Amino acid sequence: MKPSSKAWMVRTACLGVLALAGLSACSSGPKKPQPTELPPVAALMGTRAAWTAQVGATTESIVPLVAGGRVFAASTAGTVVALNGATGQDVWRLNLGTPIAAGVGSDGQTAAVVTQSNQLVALADGRELWRVRLPARAFTAPLVAGARVFVLTADRTVTAFDARNGARLWAQSRTAEPLVLSQSGALLAVGDTLVAGLSGRVVGLNPANGSVRWEAPIATPRGTNEVERLVDIVGPVSRIGDSVCARAYSAAVGCVDAARGTVVWSRANQGTSGVHGDDRLVFGADGEGRLQAWQRASGEPAWSIDRLKYRGLSAPVALGRVVAVGDSAGLVHLVSREDGSEMTRLSTDGSPILVAPVLSGDALVVQTRNGGLYAWRPQ
Question: Residue 61, Cβ neighbours under 10 Å: how many?
Answer without folding.
Answer: 23
